[in-house]
Write a structure and sequence with these properties.
This protein has about 325 residues and is of the alpha/beta class. It has 10 helices and 13 strands.
């Protein structure tokens, strides 16, 4: 039995680390891809995880496989494509730690995952199935994603959804909104950025976005707000938490870390969001927001995942203030 199985993009983030004396940009090679980031958190925190996706049969694909294996993530569902290369993203960081992406994904291997390459037994034998919209942006990975979702729903697996919208990877905003709507229709619990929630719901306020996401079928909806923290709601409870970073260096992966740590807490509570007491939901979200804030104090996504003990120490320190 797997605690969480995730399907989607696995890629290389080349993150800017500075410049040479001549002003030429320097980049560090980091593993990337939102679904893999979420699994990295969960595996680090002791959950049994498996990844489903596709990379190129190249040096980058080898690096990504080695990274996931070193994290203890099951990679029997990771396919190597001998024709299409691993997707690359170049990430520049501004002075406030915010990111700007440039993608090299035309004919990227992650878009070519097929329905026939999905091992239904892995999904059926899991507690949570997690996915986003980037695997829904092109065929054949769209059909593969929908096939995986069908298996999850048929076997009563809790479905987690994070759109992870990247405008450069869509032909038009309307296509992305349609994918968000389709993903939400299959999901039990969702995490949107405020931009994504506003796009999908046509609501401006955070509360309006949350209410609409619940109306559209989510049992729990969370909206990440950057340095303003996170707002969340079920049909019986709403909450909001904000934890400031001591010094923001790089926000890459912060939303994935927030959601991964929330899923970890939910699993430890029995993975039944509908019976989760409001106070426990508040506690889980506060822990997740704290970890996300701490992750922005270091560079990269997976390399910035904080240890659970350090998160607990930060929480304890906050409560003493």
């Amino acid at each position: 039995m797997f605690d969480v199985v995730a399907l989607g993009e696995l890629l290389i983030d080349f993150t800017q680390t500075g410049t040479t004396g001549d002003g030429i940009r320097l980049y560090a090679q980091n593993p990337g891809g939102a679904p893999a980031n979420v699994l990295a958190v969960l595996s680090k925190y002791g959950e049994k995880c498996a990844f489903i996706g596709k990379v190129g049969q190249d040096q980058f694909g080898d690096f990504l496989l080695d990274t996931l294996v070193s994290l203890g993530i099951d990679c029997q569902g990771l396919i190597f494509d001998p024709v299409h290369h691993t997707t690359l993203a170049f990430v520049s960081i501004d002075k406030s730690g915010d990111r700007n992406f440039t993608f090299y994904r035309n004919h990227g291997a992650d878009c070519f995952l097929t329905e026939g390459e999905i091992d239904a037994k892995v999904i059926a034998n899991s507690r949570i199935f997690h996915f986003g919209t980037l695997s829904m942006s092109q065929e054949p990975s769209l059909s593969a994603t929908m096939a995986a979702l069908k298996v999850a729903k048929e076997h009563g697996v809790l479905v987690s959804f994070d759109p992870n919208y990247r405008a450069l990877l869509w032909e038009c905003e309307e296509d992305a909104i349609a994918a968000m709507r389709l993903g939400l229709s299959c999901a039990d619990i969702v995490k949107f950025s405020l931009e994504e929630a506003q796009m999908l719901t046509a609501q401006e306020s955070v509360d309006g976005c949350l209410a609409r996401l619940l109306d559209m079928g989510a049992a729990l909806a969370a909206v990440s707000l950057g340095e303003q923290g996170c707002a969340y709601a079920t049909k019986d409870h709403t909450g909001r938490c904000q934890v400031p970073a001591e010094k923001t260096v790089d926000t890459t992966g912060a939303g994935d870390i927030l959601w991964g740590i929330f899923l970890h807490g939910l699993i430890r509570e029995g993975a039944d969001v509908r019976s989760l007491p409001p106070q426990r939901l508040d506690d889980l979200m506060l822990t997740a927001c704290t970890a996300a804030a701490m992750s922005t104090e270091k560079g990269g996504a997976i390399p910035s995942i904080p240890d659970l003990s350090s998160v607990q120490d930060r929480l304890h320190h906050q409560k003493r203030r």
